[in-house]
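Reopening this ticket.

The earlier resolution said the output was attached, but the attachment link was broken on my side. Pasting everything inline this time so it's all in one place.
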Amino acid sequence: MKRWVSRPAVIALVAVLAVFAWQSLTVHFNYGGNWTALFCTGARLQAPPQLDWEGIYRFPASDGYDGQFYHYLAHDPFLRKGFDGYMDDARLRYRRILVPAAAYLLAAGQDRYVDTAVFAVLWLSVLLGAYWLSRLAELSGRNPAWGLGFLLVPATIVSVDRMVVDATLAALTAGFAYYSSRGGGWGLYLLLTCACLTRETGFLLLAAYLFSLLWRRRLRMAGLFATSAVPALAWSWHVASLTRPDLLGKLASQSPMGYLRFRAWRTPDYSFPDLISLALKALDYLLLAAIALAIVLAVRSALKPSRDPRGFAALAFAVFMIAAGINFTLLDPFTFPRIASPLLLLVGMESLGGGWRFSWAPLAAVALRTCAQLVPQALGILRGLIGQ
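Inline output:
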């Protein structure tokens, strides 16, 4: 019985049920039962009038968050309804097509089912992420319950709260670690194809695997796996022909001097009571220190004689995070945690395979700051439960 309970599939199911329970409770007690609140739609921005029938929950005096744009995208994944006009950066959003398109296809193109399908894709991502992490732990001789650690990945926390696509990339990162440790195969090929279609940083996983193949002089296999980028590149070309230049184009056109300023140290000025503000400031700097430590550990992992694809992937994301520190700040406390999640996850896996015992520490530290944002919701749930 004990062996059955520990199976990765059961661990993954427990993770999904935990996510569903949290979302159900917060929607019920904090948002009046309106599930569209999880898309975090801001009242300052105009929403497509074609979706008025949904009664979208609007956060007052707010621009909302990225989830609102992926919500619109899921209703119009092929740019036929004009929903791209309601997005902050249509070209950027539409390149990240996997999650919205999967939801649209799951709903058979029926608008009344799309929102439910978007949630289903998130739950599937959590299921797969926890399952692959659990299987990896099992292969390393560790307890499969380590798979529940996927719930602490910042991208998972943010996606559960804001319905962004980062949890899916985090799940694919766990899958990358699992399949690459078993020698690759068609499962890894499909996974890398999906990663490139999820968001641009998915290409880093592919680049890392190609580099590992080239390092071992497996040229034919590298050529084969390189084709996994074709769907994403073809889709990006199609999107570029239909949309205006995006944020990446603007960043590329800025003055070179702009890249000499490291903006990550900019933290919010909190207006809470002194003790709470001080605690949040401390967590902000702990977050930065944790990511810096993860970068160091990634370099250390990449220099190992084994030349594991996971080490190369961690190094690729480490370089990316240094670039992110130049262009982004902590004024949005969710940005760094979610884009750093693949790095934190890959570094954290080192503790499963006999690496540094506390490799999971950077992930835990960043997760702590991310969870701090959910305290008001947790208090709302607690008040609701006590009041019943």
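Reporter confirms the inline version is readable. The CA atoms of residues 198 and 297 lie 26 Å apart. The first helix runs from residue 2 to 5.
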